[in-house]
Structure formats: structure tokens, C-alpha cells
Design goal:
The complex is a heterodimer of chains A (493) and B (328). Chain A is of the alpha/beta class and 493 residues long. Chain A has 15 helices and 18 strands. With 328 residues, chain B is an alpha/beta fold. An eight-stranded parallel sheet of chain B has the order 7-6-5-4-3-2-1-8. Classes of the chains: A alpha/beta (493), B alpha/beta (328).
Chain lengths: 493, 328
């Protein structure tokens, strides 16, 4: 629109031109020393694998190899479980107040080494430094602080007097929030007196291995935390191990289903945190500008690599045009590029495989007739990148409305009445999270009561707090992480 | 008194011309504006505050910020000497570096307008005068109009009026509207041109973000050229969330009417870091069209010297100190 000048122009022109932000890169050196190759962390020591197979982890923003790490063998897993079993006797009988001291110490070290961990996480994962600095690492520390507080108060957690730990927990975590997922798993397990063997994802092992150093720095007794690296084969060996008492898995629904089958009939306790296809519902009386921020945060946070991402926007037809105009305008200001630049909003896709998956599903969206839109933005020449994308004209029958894309891709659907919104929101095999945007409190409650989702956010999205339980319905898994509820997954109750 | 902002350019034909036809229609319109979620607005303003502005971007932003300052003295103790000194500072903010831009305006009480005009002769620096019984606005309308007319007659280029917060908070939106319309008329010069009208809301007294959005639209409909947060005389002055909300309001107003309105946060903006955060908000909410002193101003006094010290630091690589900028 042509602008109309309605005041006089002072003669002196200010310095003209765009206010373009100069590069503001965080130093990669702040990540500390990255070894050329890593073994496992078993019984308090860094040890070589019994096998010779090594995997490589790359920086997804540059495709440069960061380090080699061991492909854990059955024998490696066996050693790690044995170390955890050996440590369990003393750790589980240590007074809760003593276990708490170690957890508080770990939390403080994470804060002290926050910059190092934030840079390392960004390099290994591809996510922007702004997020690792302001979200991931502070949340990691918060999780350890929170569960440290529970360690000597388990009698009052609602599970009866003197609740017992389960034993050795085998934990398998994904690549989207590597250190945060580690914290979600390890902090409650240790607070309740279990020992753990954790396998980080094969594209993002570095912060877990750095965490092993922190365990040593904190003087954590040997064997309480063990880290075994490798791909899905190592994970399968861990979850199948006969001396593991508890399996906790966060990742895709197909793998979760395979683990559930594997464990059926065994006495192992299982919690699963799987996929999602969350509906973010915008009613016509929503605070539009803040709803747009919530939509952006819901789907473009962490490049959309979020199991609870608001990947389906359900917007009331009467405000559709206004909302989509505002959303597109806002998306045009998203800064895609170097994850280590402090002004980057959207970093690199974690791997070539994930980029291929996103590309396949978005191509399917176009082929099925949905309208695709992305803002103009230049993507770097090397590395794995995907423009923030929205699809309009999406119907429930489209693959992009049903399958988890796990990338910066939003499918926009519309509804006419609150009933229709709820019906469409629940019409998915998943049920992890949902969002509601309205200025009317009664409508928030009405809608939330009808949504089949483990987490429902009202006038916000993607907020996480250690005091709040998190987990899903249906194919999104079972068991809860976080809060008092999160203790139950690691107690024999 | 006229009830329609005849001089609100562009509102005719936008579908908004009947909004202020009556008390009832104005109220319906203002209460029909989308709500503001406090948590979300504050989170967005805080997130924009984390942008890292370095090197060339910082140099650009510092000079832009200097050129956007309404250098202000609004004290009971103001004297001719004080105002002349401030004008000299505005003309030559850094005597050691002639490439330093000038400020946009000098902002004074009405009785100092003539002094400031004289001191700024030969420059393009505007003289802004507060009016309408600033800062409380507690006076009868004829007094406020006389106050305004007096400042305009003395040569003020810009008038910073305060709204009647009491009327707004008691729901008498139409009274507030009509008063702005009347003050705008009082800004008219004998040659038919108008002094630019900045309308101060005193957002610290209006308290809620919903009120800020409503009063922004009210003032723009009534013919404000600029909307301004605060007088600088109450406990809470300009804040990033309030300013962000006003930026969104001028953005939406231009989309609806084609008329571009300026924004002026005032009070409490003291450091270069603060100013950068505001400029980032303008940049990412409104873009290039508002990145000039025609459309965005800082109401400030101590901000200028901090900008100058940062400017010297960028140029020389060394931090200077408060004795290397002039205190006026």
C-alpha cells in the first residue's frame, strides 16, 4: 500500500536503508574440546567399545564431521547394565537427601557450563543458539533442580510410605532435544534411587557424552549413570536386556510399538513418549497477534522437530483470511540460517534423512492439491535446510493432515463451530498436545475437556516446566514425565 | 464542537468514517477490537529484546536513534539558559565529531517555545511543545485549547497533548475523542497548515493492554499524527510491550485506512541497549517505512549521551566516559 505522508518532511534525511542485522556469531570454540572419537561411559569411566564399528556425527549446518563414536554392541550394553546393577545397591539405599546433593550439584554444573553446552548442542543438532541458550539448557538445569527437590520427599509423593525404585532403567532418547530429553529421563530416575543406562540418538550423541563428564565432575558414584552410544540396534539390545527393570523411550511411534511388543509378557515397566499431530485451535475471538506468535512458536520452534508441535492449525473460518495474512507477514520476518548466529530463528534440519522425509511429505501435500506457501528466504548452500512452510486448503484426508512431518511445515484446516473444531482436533491417531486460542475462559474449559490430548495449552504453546506432567493419549504413548506424576514411572508402585 | 475528525486524512472511504459518529458506535468499535493476551505480548517483546545488534548494524542503529530523539526538558526549573543549552546540544550532539546526526526535535513547555525556536534558527530541528495542561491534563477544555493555540502561535512545529485519562477510564470515549479533534483544530495555523499532533496516552495510568489498543485506535481516528506512550512524569512510562502494541496498532490502522501514523515511546529509555530493543521492534513489526524520525521518535533526555558514548566506542574501539560527552 502506498504510504501517505501526513507530516512534513524535515530537510535532513536520516541514514537510509534497511536495518539489517550484522552477523552476530557465537564462537564454535565455546563448545570446548570435541574428541575425534568417543567410546562409551560405563562404570564411571570412558571405555572403548568391544566392537570396531564407529559412527559419525555431523554438524547439520555444514555437513562437517564433528566426531566418531562407537556403535554399541550387545556386549557393551551388557557391561553397562552390569555396572548399573552393581551401583544400584548403594545408590538405592543412600538417603534421599544425599542423592539430592548429587542432583543439585549436577544442576549447578549445567548452569555453570551453560554456554559450552548450548554451543555444543547447537553444533551437533542444528538448532539455533538462541534456543539452546534460552530454552534447552535452562530447562535441563531446571529439571535436575526440580527432581533433586523430590529425592528426600518421596514419602509424600502420594505413593505411600517408602516407595521403592525399580532397579536399572534402560533409556533411549531422540535427537530433537538431546540434552533436555536426557534430563527428563535421568533426573527422575536418579531422584527415585534407580541407576540408568542411556542411549542418545545416533545423530546427536555429543551432549550426552559431555554430560558423562559432568557426572564425573559432580563426583557421582560410578555406574549410577552409564551412556552407551549407537543406532537402533544398540537401543534394541538395551531395551531387550533381561536385567533391565524399566524401559523409557521417547521417539517415533513405529519404534515405540516395536518396543511394546518386545516387552510384552516381561516384568519390565515401560513408558513411551511418541509422535504427535497437535491441533492448534484458533477461535474467532482470539487475541490475533498473540495467536500468530503462538502458531509460529508451535510449529517453527526447533525447526518443527517437536513431538508436541502444533502442526495442524485449525482456524475458525470467519477469521481465516485475517489470521493467515498476519501469519504470512510474521513468517516473512523469520530468520533462517547459521544456527550459531544469535539472531537466527530457524536453524538446520537435523539430518539428510529427516530432510528427505519432510520433502517427501510436502511433495505429497502438493500432489494431493493443498496450496503451499513459504516466505522468500535464502538458504545456505551446504547443510540441511527447509524453508518455513504452510499448506492451506488442507483436508483431513491429506497425508499432511494425518502423518507427523516433524519439520517446519504447518497444515491449515478450518472449522465453523466449536463442535467441529473438537471433532477435527481429535480425529487423529495421536493425542499428545493441543492448543486453544480464545479470549473466553469458559470456551477454553469447554474445549479442553473434550480434547483427547495429554497436554492442552490455552493462549500459549510449547511451554514446558518440570513441575508439569507431560505425556500422551492413544498412539502418542503412555506414562507421564515431569511433575509428581513423573516419579511414578520410576517407582515400584 | 465538531464530532467528526474532518481532518483525519484517509479515514473517509475506509469503512471507518462512521465509527465516531456517535458515542455508541465509537464504544462498539473500540470494544470490538481483538483482545490482547498479556503473557503473549510480553513474551514477544522480550524475545525481540534478545536480538544481538553488532558492528555495522549497531553503528546504523545508533545514528538512527540519535536522529529520532525528541530531546526533552520539562521541568519547573527550566530557564531560558537551560533551554538554549539543550538546543545547542541538539544541534551539535558531539562537538568532537561533526558526522554525528542532529536530534529530531527539542521538546519543551509552551512558554519556552519562542526561546527554542530562536536557538534552533537555521536548522531543521523541530520544536515540540507539550500542551493541554501537561502532564495531568486536568483543566477545562478552553484552557487546554488556549494552551495549545499559544504554543502554536509561538512557533511550535509539534504539539504533544495529553488525553483526559479520567474520561477514558470512566468510559467516556467520545469526550476523549472530541477533545483530540478540538486540540487538532487548535493546532491550525493562520496559513491553514497544522502543527503535528502527538497524543500522549499515559499508558502507565491506563494500565491494561486492552485499554492501550483501544486508545490507540481512538486517537488515530481522531486525527493524531503520532501516538505517544507517556509524559515521563508517572511511575511507569514507556515499556517494550506497550510500545509493541502501539506499533501493531499503527500497522493495522494503515492497513485499514492507508494512513500512516507515527509512534513515540517516552520516559525511561536511558541506554543504547534500550534504544536498540525499540528499533528492533520497529524493524520487525513495521519495517523500513517507519524507520525514520518522521515516523518514530524517542522522548528522552539522558539517552542521547549514552548513544554518544557508544558511538565513540564504535569509532575508536575504546570506552570513553561521561566526561567525554557534554552535559547540558
Amino acid at each position: 500500500m502506498a504510504k501517505k505522508k501526513n507530516i512534513e518532511e524535515p530537510a535532513a534525511k536520516p541514514a537510509g536503508g534497511l536495518f539489517t542485522y550484522a552477523p552476530a556469531p557465537e564462537s564454535p570454540a565455546a563448545a570446548g574440546d570435541i574428541a575425534s572419537s568417543y567410546g562409551h561411559f560405563i562404570g564411571g569411566e570412558f571405555v572403548d567399545s568391544s566392537g570396531s564399528e564407529a559412527l559419525k556425527t555431523v554438524n547439520p549446518a555444514t555437513e562437517q564431521v564433528l566426531a566418531e563414536f562407537a556403535q554399541g554392541t550387545d556386549e557393551d550394553v551388557d557391561r553397562a547394565v552390569a555396572a548399573a546393577r552393581k551401583a544400584f545397591a548403594d545408590w538405592s539405599t543412600l538417603p534421599g537427601s544425599e542423592r539430592a546433593k548429587y542432583l543439585f550439584r549436577i544442576a549447578r554444573i549445567i548452569q555453570e557450563r551453560g554456554r559450552e553446552l548450548a554451543v555444543l548442542e547447537s553444533i551437533d543438532n542444528g538448532k539455533p543458539i538462541r534456543e539452546t541458550r534460552d530454552f534447552d539448557i535452562p530447562t535441563v538445569a531446571a529439571w535436575f533442580f526440580y527432581y533433586a527437590g523430590w529425592a528426600d520427599k518421596l514419602d509424600y509423593a502420594g505413593f505411600g510410605a517408602n516407595p521403592r525404585p525399580l532397579g536399572v532403567a534402560g533409556q533411549v532418547i531422540p535427537w530433537n532435544f538431546p540434552l533436555m530429553m536426557l534430563a527428563w529421563k535421568i533426573a527422575p530416575a536418579l531422584a527415585t534411587g534407580n541407576t540408568v543406562v542411556l542411549k542418545p540418538a545416533e545423530t546427536t550423541p555429543l551432549t550426552a557424552l559431555r554430560f558423562a563428564e559432568i557426572c564425573r565432575q559432580a563426583g557421582l558414584p560410578k555406574g549410577v549413570v552409564n551412556i552407551v552410544t549407537g543406532d537402533g540396534r544398540t537401543g534394541a539390545a538395551l531395551t531387550a536386556h533381561p536385567d533391565v527393570n524399566k524401559v523409557a523411550f521417547t521417539g517415533s511411534t513405529p519404534v515405540g510399538r516395536a518396543i511394546a511388543k518386545q516387552l510384552a509378557g516381561s516384568r519390565k515397566k515401560l513408558s513411551l513418549e511418541l509422535g504427535g499431530k497437535a491441533a492448534n485451535i484458533v477461535f474467532d475471538d482470539a487475541p490475533i497477534d498473540q495467536a500468530v506468535e503462538g502458531i509460529v512458536n508451535g510449529i517453527f520452534f526447533n525447526q518443527g522437530h517437536v513431538c508436541c508441535a502444533g502442526s495442524r492449525l485449525l482456524v475458525q473460518e470467519s477469521v481465516q483470511d485475517e489470521l493467515l495474512d498476519a501469519l504470512k507477514r510474521r513468517m516473512s520476518t523469520l530468520r533462517v540460517g547459521d544456527p550459531l548466529d544469535k539472531n537466527t530463528d530457524i536453524g538446520a534440519i537435523n539430518s539428510a534423512a529427516q530432510l528427505a522425509r519432510i520433502t517427501e511429505l510436502t511433495d505429497a501435500g502438493e500432489a494431493e492439491g493443498a496450496d503451499r506457501w513459504s516466505p522468500e528466504c535464502e538458504l545456505p548452500g551446504t547443510g540441511f535446510w527447509f524453508k518455513p512452510t504452510i499448506f492451506t486448503g488442507v483436508s483431513q484426508a491429506h497425508r499432511i493432515a494425518q502423518e507427523e512431518i516433524f519439520g517446519p511445515v504447518l497444515s491449515v484446516l478450518t472449522f465453523r463451530t466449536p463442535d467441529e473444531a473438537v471433532q477435527k482436533a481429535n480425529n487423529t491417531p495421536f493425542g499428545l498436545s493441543a492448543g486453544i486460542w480464545t479470549e473466553k475462559g469458559s470456551r477454553i474449559l469447554w474445549t479442553a475437556n473434550r480434547l483427547k490430548a495429554g497436554v492442552v495449552w490455552a493462549n500459549t504453546f510449547n511451554k514446558f516446566d518440570p513441575t508439569s506432567p507431560f505425556g500422551g493419549y492413544k498412539e502418542s504413548g503412555y506414562g507421564r514425565e515431569g511433575g509428581r506424576h513423573g516419579l511414578e514411572a520410576y517407582l515400584d508402585v | 464542537m465538531s464530532t467528526v475528525a474532518a481532518n483525519a486524512p484517509g479515514v473517509a472511504g475506509s469503512g471507518l468514517q462512521d465509527v465516531a459518529a456517535s458515542e455508541a458506535s465509537l464504544r462498539r468499535f473500540l470494544h470490538g477490537l481483538p483482545g490482547v493476551d498479556q503473557v503473549g505480548l510480553e513474551a514477544r517483546a522480550a524475545a525481540l529484546g534478545t536480538r544481538s545488534i553488532k558492528t555495522t548494524a549497531k553503528a546504523y542503529a545508533i545514528d538512527l536513534a540519535i536522529s529520532m530523539i525528541d530531546l526533552t526538558t520539562l521541568e519547573g526549573a527550566d530557564t531560558v539558559g537551560k533551554v538554549r543549552a539543550l538546543c545547542a546540544k541538539g544541534r551539535t550532539p558531539d562537538p568532537t565529531d561533526p558526522t554525528t546526526p542532529r536530534v529530531a526535535a527539542i521538546c519543551v513547555y509552551p512558554d519556552m517555545v519562542a526561546t527554542a525556536k530562536d536557538a534552533l534558527k537555521g536548522t531543521d530541528i523541530q520544536v515540540a511543545s507539550v500542551a493541554t495542561a501537561f502532564p495531568a491534563g486536568r483543566a477545562a477544555l478552553p484552557v487546554k485549547l488556549a494552551d495549545t493555540a499559544d504554543a502554536v502561535a509561538a512557533g511550535a512545529d509539534e504539539i504533544d497533548m495529553v488525553i483526559d485519562r479520567g474520561a477514558f477510564l470512566s468510559g467516556r470515549y467520545f469526550d476523549v475523542y472530541n477533545e483530540i479533534v478540538a486540540v487538532k483544530e487548535a493546532c491550525k495555523r493562520p496559513d491553514g497548515s497544522y502543527a503535528h499532533l502527538k497524543v500522549i496516552f499515559e499508558t502507565g495510568e491506563l494500565q491494561t493492554y486492552d485499554n492501550v489498543r483501544r486508545v490507540s485506535w481512538l486517537a488515530m481516528l481522531a486525527g493524531a499524527d503520532f501516538i505517544k506512550t507517556s509524559t515521563g512524569k508517572v511511575a511507569v512510562n514507556a515499556t517494550p510491550p506497550v510500545t509493541l502494541l502501539m506499533l501493531e496498532a499503527v500497522r493495522d490502522f494503515r492497513a485499514a485506512t492507508g494512513v500512516q501514523i507515527g509512534v513515540k515511546p517516552a520516559g525511561g529509555i536511558k541506554t543504547t541497549k534500550d534504544a536498540m530493543k525499540y528499533l528492533v521492534m520497529v524493524n520487525e513489526t513495521l519495517g523500513d517505512d517507519w524507520l525514520s524520525p518522521h515516523w518514530f521518535r524517542f522522548g528522552a533526555s539522558s539517552l542521547l549521551n549514552d548513544l554518544l558514548m557508544q558511538r565513540q566506542k564504535l569509532a575508536t574501539g575504546r570506552y570513553s566516559g561521561p566526561d567525554y560527552v557534554t552535559v547540558d
